[in-house]
């Protein structure tokens, strides 16, 4: 007999099993409810937040029984299994069941979560790429877990950082290796799954640079321009705008990487986001800090960016320096942590031994030094190739052979950089300045630095002051000017006994720095300078002036900001013969590359760039300083004078003389002389800035004197400068101007007293205090040394008698020169003798005076007792300058022709004629004026086609375009500023593979392939000048229209004579599928266009019928006949809207959503057969050779029409293309010519 307890135990076990089974049933039913609610969220709002499972189950079952449109097809079968729906006519009650049938309709056991994920049963359909995607995501998660564990560890900080760097770079290496295998097969849904893991690589500081270098190109190609700008552009821009950069960042500013950014983000996005960091790199604001931990107070203050510089407002500021990123080493790195063994197993399981071992990367710059001039026509595709096509990382580098550990290898940062200790300022003092703008936030958080360089960084204020002392004493820079707002350069006094020791020490350090600089392949400013010049040669004059030179001119202000240490004296340049004062400051070193870029751009596009942009900038800035002189305006004024000094030798003699009085003297130099000699204004940085400005003005005047010779052109200006010494050294101590200086004031633009718009007193100060402080500044500046530096060379050049009769204070200047000579008897006792300056009074060779060789020439300057005699040359002929000591500034006779000749010999791309008129008009427009203003100015004529031009496609870089013609050829052209508007340009390359007239050409932005059509489709590569494939025409109907789908799609759409759309995949160069777009007598397909996302295609027929096709499903969404006549042209706009024109002389705007006419664009009186878009403006072309412009796509848009003149355009207009950034039109004619008009 079975005990009762046994029955009870069995009942309990059975109850437990039933409860467990019920729980599994409820779990799978809950999964089904959640899935339905996810895809039918709007229809599930009737459920309360606390709805029970039976209620939710009944509602979900009801939705599935009646409406499955919102449910994706891939999971419909799964939901049918979960909810036991066997047919659409199932009328059972919506009751929550407690169990499933033992065997389902598919012959499977009851559904369970494990069964749903079983790949063999295939209940849920997974895409074919899912295994690779899943493996990739698992690897990325493993590396992320390793990094998280490392950041939470408590081991040594240096070892932890090294381990993090190691894992981060291996993670990037793995991604760069696996992505080329995964991306081609991914759909948009699959790409969205791995995108967060890839974006994490760009945002993680330790892997950001390597991720940008290796992953930008393949990822942007897969995303397409729109998605790349949305997801990928922000982290890359953040990387470029980082204040703290390492040597790894160097390659990001090289033109090879910039070319990838132009290709995948578009030229407009590149110019908007990446030009500013590039210009900042030229000015030294992106200089590599080196691997040493540098004290914040001696790093150059990266106070402003180009975006924050507003010269009119005079804003300035400083920001706290940021430490550089951690740098990994090449040795094997270990970190003792709990997860070390597991982490190593995971890493080694994913990578081979060769891949896991980090090797130093060697980055080789491509192409060497490239000329800015245009490429030779003998190599037609070389120029187009390097501009238009950027290979993937997998095509250019083997990840198994090159490690991602080092960006540039082991380049030390020993070159003179903006972060040298001499650039420092007192941060507490500077940060209290109310004019400082908001600082640029660093892109990365500070991290430790484990390696050091050979730069010696002072540890205390004493060391820092000693360094500044050595620089200030032993340079031939400034005459003891004091920087009032910089405590570390005030009250500097070095004993005479230490002079020789400090000189030797400084020269030795300079020689070491020079040797280190020679050992470096590149630094950041060099790479940025090279990239700027490379861009300038390809952007054309308008884009270069609009985006490059404007920012370079603004960058000069940053280079001379006093708070960044720009006023610190440095040794003079022995090769600079055009500086009479021989005074250099640290700002000159900052601005050297900026001035070089500006001058090279001027040499490329001609001296009109100097006259109409550079000199205008100088004159406007000088005029602004007369109204308000802030610290930023002070730096801008110094930069303007440095630019003027740099540009004077570049002007031709005729141009120089033409603009000497009105522009150079009246608007530039003379107002600056009035400003620096004024007692009504105080300089924000006192006598130091005023003294530097005085030296710049003297240098500019002497270069002008060298070019003009003796004459009256410069004497009023020289007189105004020299009479300023009366304000400090006049015997009567009168501050009034002499009669001759007043005459000069009246001659050159009014007097200083009470002139409207003249110099204003500093705000917030009384007139007496301003005058007293200004006099103190003038006493610091107008010293005997400055008189000696300016008066003696001018007397030698112009003659003593002439100077004596011209200058009212001639005796005062002589006495100041004598005083300076008496004060320097120990060094310059015999420098003004007639024996050629062989020895000084102490017997020291002349090399100690600056390394200058003595001269045997005579001189017209002599010392007689305590008197200086300056003799005139015989017959009033000016003798050439003899060698003078360093204090005077001339080492040898200056041959000005050596500096003025040959600067602009290559005139091929100089602006003249119509090109100059177009450029001047464009740079004169404000940045807010973006309207298309058609002036009908002919710029170039492209000849080569012998029959009617049928189609033109402009590449997105706007310096190349492709055309096709009835002459059976397709040609590639280069757009460059050449000639005066009447130049005829020949083709760069011709594709001759067609046997019939070519009527269509398209370019795939994703694959970078071109396709042309003559009833058969030819796919060819314009960068290697080779045909890839000619598609078979025998198996298919003839093609009538061809277009390319927008990136990231790799497909072409071809319309055939049987009203069928055939899709061509450029990856395989074969037809993939086709859709029928007309079932009746709609006629031939005349034109097709695709939406920006590639989902819709509009098709226009010869009968006036228009169809809209969904490319995802192949369904015809709508078909209607909007026009009475044949449709001539169609252009997709945006937001489900497109524009069409027909023979009925209407231009209509249609909505795809409801197939209704939105409105008609009024204006054209002839049939419009060409439509192009420029932003929101519509540009049309008619058969009567009229170009029309609608200001917007709206019923109230204004319309303007221009008939093409016969001298501008000959023939009948057949095709048209717009260059949106340059605001130009390419017009093709029936006679085979193509003309570029603005």
From TrEMBL:
Pfam families: ANAPC4_WD40, WD40. Residues 1081-1133 form the Anaphase-promoting complex subunit 4-like WD40 domain. Keywords: WD repeat. Residues 408-458, 730-767, 836-858 are annotated as: Disordered. WD repeats lie at residues 942-977, 991-1021. One of its GO terms (biological process) is aggrephagy. Gene3D superfamilies: YVTN repeat-like/Quinoprotein amine dehydrogenase. SMART domains: WD40. It comes from the Eukaryota. GO terms for molecular function: phosphatidylinositol 3-kinase regulator activity. The keyword Magnesium does not apply. GO terms for cellular component: mitochondrion. InterPro entries: Apc4-like_WD40_dom, WD40/YVTN_repeat-like_dom_sf, WD40_repeat_dom_sf, WD40_rpt, WDR81. Residues 444-455 have a biased composition (Polar residues). PANTHER family: WD REPEAT-CONTAINING PROTEIN 81. This is WD repeat-containing protein 81.
């Amino acid at each position: 007999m079975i005990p009762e307890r046994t029955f009870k135990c069995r009942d309990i076990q059975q109850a437990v099993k039933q409860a467990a089974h019920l729980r599994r049933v409820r779990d799978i039913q809950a999964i089904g409810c959640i899935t339905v609610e996810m895809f039918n969220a709007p229809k599930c709002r009737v459920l309360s937040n606390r709805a029970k499972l039976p209620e939710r189950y009944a509602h979900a079952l009801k939705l599935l029984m009646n409406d499955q449109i919102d449910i994706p097809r891939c999971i419909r079968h799964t939901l049918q299994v979960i909810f036991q729906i066997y047919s659409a006519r199932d009328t059972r009650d919506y009751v929550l069941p407690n169990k499933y049938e033992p065997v389902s309709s598919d012959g499977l056991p009851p559904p369970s979560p494990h069964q749903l994920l079983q790949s063999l049963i295939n209940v849920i359909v997974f895409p074919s790429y899912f295994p690779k995607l899943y493996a990739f995501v698992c690897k990325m998660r493993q590396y992320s877990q390793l990094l998280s564990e490392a950041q939470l560890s408590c081991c040594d900080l240096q070892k932890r950082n090294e381990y993090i760097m190691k894992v981060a770079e291996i993670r990037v290496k793995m991604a760069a290796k696996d992505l080329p295998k995964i991306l081609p097969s991914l759909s948009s849904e699959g790409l969205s799954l791995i995108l967060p893991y890839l974006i994490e690589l760009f945002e993680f500081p330790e892997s950001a640079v390597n991720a940008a270098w290796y992953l930008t190109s393949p990822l942007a190609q897969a995303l397409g321009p729109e998605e790349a700008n949305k997801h990928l552009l922000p982290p890359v821009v953040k990387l470029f705008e980082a204040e703290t950069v390492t040597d790894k960042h160097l390659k990001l500013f090289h033109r090879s990487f910039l070319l990838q950014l132009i290709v995948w983000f578009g030229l407009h996005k590149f110019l908007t986001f990446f030009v500013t960091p590039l210009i900042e790199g030229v000015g030294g604001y992106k200089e590599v800090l080196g691997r040493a931990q540098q004290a914040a107070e001696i790093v150059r203050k990266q106070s402003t960016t180009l975006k924050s510089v507003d010269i009119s407002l005079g804003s300035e500021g400083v920001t706290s320096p940021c430490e550089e990123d951690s740098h990994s080493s090449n040795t094997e790195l270990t970190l003792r942590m709990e997860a070390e063994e597991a982490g190593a197993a995971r890493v080694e399981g994913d990578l081979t031994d060769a891949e896991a071992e980090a090797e130093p990367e060697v980055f080789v710059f491509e192409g060497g030094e490239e000329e800015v001039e245009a490429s030779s026509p003998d190599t037609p595709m070389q120029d187009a190739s390097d501009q238009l096509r950027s290979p993937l990382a997998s095509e250019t580098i083997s990840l198994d052979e090159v490690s991602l550990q080092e960006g540039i290898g082991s380049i030390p940062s020993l070159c003179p950089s903006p972060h040298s200790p001499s650039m420092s300022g007192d941060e507490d003092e500077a940060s209290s300045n109310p004019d400082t703008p908001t600082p640029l936030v660093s892109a990365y958080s500070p991290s430790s630095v484990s390696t050091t360089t050979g730069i010696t960084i002072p540890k205390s204020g004493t060391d820092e002051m000693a360094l500044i002392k050595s620089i200030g004493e032993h340079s031939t820079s400034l005459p003891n000017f004091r920087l009032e707002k910089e405590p570390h350069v005030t009250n500097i006094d070095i004993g005479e006994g230490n002079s020789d020791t400090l000189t030797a020490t400084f020269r030795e350090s300079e020689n070491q720095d020079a040797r280190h600089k020679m050992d470096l392949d590149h630094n950041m400013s060099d790479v940025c300078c090279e990239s700027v010049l490379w861009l300038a040669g390809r952007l054309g004059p308008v884009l270069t002036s609009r985006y490059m030179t404007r920012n370079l001119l603004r960058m000069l202000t940053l280079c001379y900001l006093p708070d960044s240490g720009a006023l610190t004296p440095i040794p003079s340049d022995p090769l600079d013969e055009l500086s009479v004062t021989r005074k250099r400051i640290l700002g000159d070193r900052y601005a050297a590359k900026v001035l070089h870029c500006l001058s090279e751009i001027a040499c490329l596009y001609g001296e009109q760039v100097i006259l109409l942009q550079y000199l205008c900038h100088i004159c406007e800035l000088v005029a602004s300083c007369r109204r308000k002189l802030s610290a930023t305006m002070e730096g801008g004024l110094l930069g303007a004078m440095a630019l003027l000094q740099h540009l004077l030798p570049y002007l031709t003699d005729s141009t120089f003389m033409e603009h000497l009085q009105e522009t150079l003297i009246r608007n530039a130099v003379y107002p600056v002389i009035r400003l620096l000699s004024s007692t009504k204004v105080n300089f924000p940085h006192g006598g130091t800035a005023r003294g530097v400005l005085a030296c710049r003005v003297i240098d500019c005047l002497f270069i002008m004197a060298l070019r003009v010779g003796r004459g009256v052109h410069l004497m009023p200006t020289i007189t105004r400068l020299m009479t300023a010494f009366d304000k400090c050294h006049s015997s009567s101590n009168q501050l009034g101007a002499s009669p001759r200086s007043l005459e000069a004031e009246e001659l050159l633009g009014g007097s200083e007293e009470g002139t409207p718009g003249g110099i204003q007193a500093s705000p917030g100060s009384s007139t007496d205090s301003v005058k007293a402080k200004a006099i103190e500044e003038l006493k610091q500046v107008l010293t005997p040394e400055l008189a000696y530096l300016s008066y003696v060379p001018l007397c030698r050049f112009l003659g003593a008698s002439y100077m004596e009769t011209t200058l009212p204070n001639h005796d005062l200047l002589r006495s100041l020169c004598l005083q300076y000579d008496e004060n320097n008897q120990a060094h310059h006792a015999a420098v003004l003798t007639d024996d050629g300056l062989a020895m000084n009074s102490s017997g020291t060779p002349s090399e100690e005076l600056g390394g200058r060789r003595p001269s045997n020439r005579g001189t017209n300057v002599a010392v007689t007792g305590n008197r200086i005699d300056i003799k005139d040359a015989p017959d009033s002929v000016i003798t050439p300058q003899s060698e003078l000591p360093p204090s005077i500034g001339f080492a040898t006779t200056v041959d000005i022709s050596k500096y003025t000749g040959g600067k602009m010999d290559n005139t091929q791309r100089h602006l003249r004629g119509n090109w100059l008129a177009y450029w001047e008009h464009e740079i004169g427009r404000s940045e807010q004026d973006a309207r298309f203003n058609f002036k009908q100015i002919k710029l170039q004529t492209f000849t080569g086609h012998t029959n009617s031009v049928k189609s033109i496609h402009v590449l997105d870089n706007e310096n190349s375009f492709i055309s096709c013609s009835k002459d059976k050829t397709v040609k590639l052209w280069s757009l460059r500023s050449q000639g005066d508007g009447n130049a005829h340009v020949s083709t760069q390359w011709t594709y001759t593979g067609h046997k019939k007239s070519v009527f269509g050409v398209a370019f795939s932005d994703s694959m970078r392939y071109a396709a042309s059509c003559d009833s058969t489709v030819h796919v060819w590569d314009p960068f290697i000048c080779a045909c890839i494939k000619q598609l078979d025409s025998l198996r298919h109907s003839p093609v009538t229209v061809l277009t390319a789908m927008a990136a990231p799609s790799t497909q072409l759409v071809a319309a055939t004579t049987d009203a069928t759309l055939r899709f061509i995949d450029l990856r395989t160069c074969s037809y993939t599928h086709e859709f029928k777009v007309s079932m009746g007598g709609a006629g031939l397909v005349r034109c097709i266009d695709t939406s920006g996302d590639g989902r819709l295609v509009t098709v226009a027929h010869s009968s006036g019928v228009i169809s809209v096709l969904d490319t995802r499903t192949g369904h015809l969404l709508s078909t209607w006949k909007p026009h009475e006549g044949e449709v001539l042209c169609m252009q997709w706009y945006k937001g489900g809207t497109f524009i069409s024109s027909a023979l009925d002389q209407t231009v209509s705007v249609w909505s795809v959503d409801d197939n209704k006419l939105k409105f008609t664009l009024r204006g054209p009186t002839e049939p419009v057969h060409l439509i192009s878009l420029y932003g929101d403006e519509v540009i049309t072309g008619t058969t009567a050779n009229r170009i029309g412009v609608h200001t917007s796509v709206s019923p109230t848009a204004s319309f303007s029409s221009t008939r093409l003149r016969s001298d501008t355009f000959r023939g009948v207009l057949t095709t048209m293309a717009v260059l949106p950034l340059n605001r130009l039109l390419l017009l093709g004619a029936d006679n085979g010519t193509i003309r570029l008009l603005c």
